Amino acid sequence: MDFSKILTKWYLQNKRDLPWRNTVNPYYIWLSEIILQQTRVNQGLAYYEKFIVTFPTVFDLAKANENTILNLWQGLGYYSRARNLHFSAKYIVNEQDGKFPTTYKDILKLKGVGDYTASAIASICYNEPHAVVDGNVYRVLARYYGIDIPTNSTEGIKLFKKLAQELIDLKDPATFNQAIMEFGAIQCKPKNPDCTICPFQNSCKAKEEKRVEILPIKDKKIKVTKRFFNYIVLISPTDRTLLNQRKQKGIWMNLYQFPLIETSKEIDISELIKMDELHEITNTSNNDISLFNKKPIIHKLSHQHLTVKFWVINSGKEIENSIPISEFDKYPVPILIHNFAEAYF
DNA sequence: GACCCGTGGCA
DNA sequence: TTGCCAAGGGT
Fold first, then answer.
1. CB < 7 Å to strand C — which of 288-307 in chain A?
2. Class assignment of domain A3-208?
3. Can you quote the record's cofactor note (predicted)?
4. How far apart are CA A71 and CA A82, in angstroms?
5. Any idea which fold A225-344 has?
6. A178 Cβ contacts chain C strand, under 7 Å
């Protein structure tokens, strides 16, 4: 039996029952694929269910406010996915008469859709034989063929796409694509795969050479920037607080947060009260300041380590442009801010 | 081509 | 505790 045959047989016996596997509606498949980018199935599942209930059609998604969409996306990370999803929904409705693109080439034009996602949608919904290459596929192929070319190098990206494209079952690309990803997720796992029950145990190059644990190779470690955040949580006598929207490019774009004072190192209260930025925010000589978290919160993002302090200030008077604390949940916020609010409010 | 973008699970 | 990595894509 060839690779595709063995793989498909394994898949039909071992696949999970996932909601997006019961439809070929391109809108639903698109939603699921965007949600699952760089995200584990278990983490994305609840978000998929929320989205299809809240936005049953692309028209519902297109006409929603961005805040509503970001609010539903809250906690999932990589928020540009949500902004691009909204942008593309509006494009489909306003410029394509609400009709989802039907070819790989046209699907690829959607913002937030790259080669992987276009291949997934085109194969699952329209039976186009474009091979998907995600983290699972890199791992399966690197091990099966014993390839130590870095998967994130230009050469690697090209090579693995070519290999996947050669292997794909032209008669049923949808099943092949989902099978190889599922195989990578369940059987050919990153750590401690049980090769004794693998259907490829007699043909896998990495198994033969005892290199399963070291493959695939990935080069370049990402540089992590350290930043120091001081959030100023103003509380008015009538239980109102101040939120700002992050408009600049960078992390958490378009999400909300408390007024932020960023410093080059950790600061204490004596340093804080000397800062002009603080007085611009409080609009008064400060009086009632307390630190919420005695030990700074270390919030780790893929490229940044944040050291965060929440400074709570009772303003003693009304706050301009403030919002009722009771309406806090209406605003999309980073999980860091959400966790603070959960604990404090 | 290099760098940026979140969050959570796991060993 | 730390590093890895997850159904990637944009700039």
1. 302
2. mainly alpha
3. Binds 1 [4Fe-4S] cluster.
4. 10
5. Nucleoside Triphosphate Pyrophosphohydrolase (3.90.79)
6. yes
Instruction: Please provide the distance, in angstroms rounded to a whole number, between the alpha carbons at the two ends of chain A.
Output: 61
The separation, in Å, between residue A131 CA and nucleotide C7 C1' comes to 13
Spanning CA of A141 to C1' of B9, the rounded length in angstroms is 24
Strand partners, A308: A229, A297
- In the structure encoding, which two tokens stand for residue A220, read together? 């370049």
Q: Catalytic residue positions of A? A: 33
Nucleotide C10, nearest residue via CA and C1': A112
Q: pLDDT tens digits, chain A, 345 residues: what are they?
A: 799 999 999 999 999 999 999 999 999 999 999 999 999 999 999 999 999 999 999 999 999 999 999 999 999 999 999 999 999 999 999 999 999 999 999 999 999 999 999 999 999 999 999 999 999 999 999 999 999 999 999 999 999 999 999 999 999 999 999 999 999 999 999 999 999 999 999 999 999 999 999 999 998 778 899 999 999 999 999 999 999 999 999 999 999 999 999 999 999 999 999 999 999 998 776 678 999 998 999 999 999 999 999 999 999 899 999 999 999 999 999 999 999 999 999
Tell me the CA distances in angstroms from A76 to A20, A41, A73, A255, one per residue in order.
18, 12, 6, 13
